[in-house]
């Protein structure tokens, strides 16, 4: 059964779910993230929900907030980021949410970073049409250098579409159309 995935503007109460996602030790190890204290998180959250430069969307599955996707200005470029609660990993939710988001967020180019150890997020970015720009590196709160990759999206991929499931199904599905290559007749 496919989950119904919707995006909506983040709301102040969503912060609690996002704070709990940020405390997930396994997810943080995978990306080299050091979680913030409750006070640090909610001070930042207050800026996030009122920030003018980005678009922030809650990812909602069957009525439950399971993560977020959004943009922010960083290092002079527009970046997209997403996080899905671990209990929802492996279900295609991140890909479907980012695909929906990209139909709303039209500014380009759009960048995304991913730690080298975060293969799932790298795959999500590739499925959504991002191409590898090159190596990336960042320093986490503990002063550790985290190796990663920088991806870039110049235009919305032409072969992806978000469609309602056929009768009897629920939610949305992402379809990748195949590009037919026309061959010239042999001579």
Name the poorly predicted regions: 159-187
Could you give me the name of the CATH homologous superfamily? Answer: Gcn5-related N-acetyltransferase (GNAT)
Structural class label: alpha+beta
CA radius of gyration:
18 Å
What is the H-and-E element order?
EHHHEEEHEHEEEE
Largest sheet: 4 strands, antiparallel
**Second CATH tier, the architecture:** 3-Layer(aba) Sandwich
**What oligomeric state do the depicted chains represent?**
single chain
CATH topology: Aminopeptidase
Beta-strand content: 25-35%
- Mean pLDDT equals 82
- Count of distinct strands: 9
- The domain count comes to 1
Task: Figure out the total of helices.
Answer: 5
Major sheet: order of its strands? Answer: 1-2-3-4
CATH class: Alpha Beta
Helix content: 25-40%
Which geometry do the CA atoms define? globular
Terminal CA distance reads 50 Å
């Amino acid at each position: 059964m496919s989950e119904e995935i919707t995006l909506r503007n983040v709301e102040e109460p969503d912060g609690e779910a996002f704070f709990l996602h940020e405390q997930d030790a396994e997810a943080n190890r995978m990306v080299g993230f050091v979680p913030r204290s409750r006070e640090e998180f909610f001070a930042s959250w207050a800026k996030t929900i009122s920030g003018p430069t980005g678009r922030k969307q809650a990812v909602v599955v069957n009525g439950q907030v399971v993560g977020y996707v959004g943009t922010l200005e960083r290092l002079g470029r527009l970046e997209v980021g997403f996080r899905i609660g671990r209990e929802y990993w492996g279900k295609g939710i991140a890909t479907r949410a980012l695909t929906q988001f990209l139909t709303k967020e039209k500014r380009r180019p759009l960048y995304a970073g991913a730690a080298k150890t975060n293969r799932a997020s790298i795959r999500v970015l590739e499925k959504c049409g991002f191409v590898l720009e090159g190596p990336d590196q960042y320093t986490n709160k503990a002063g550790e250098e985290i190796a990663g990759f920088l991806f870039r999206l110049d235009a919305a991929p032409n072969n992806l579409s978000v469609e309602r499931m056929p009768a009897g199904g629920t939610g949305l599905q992402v379809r990748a159309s195949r590009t037919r290559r026309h061959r010239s007749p042999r001579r």
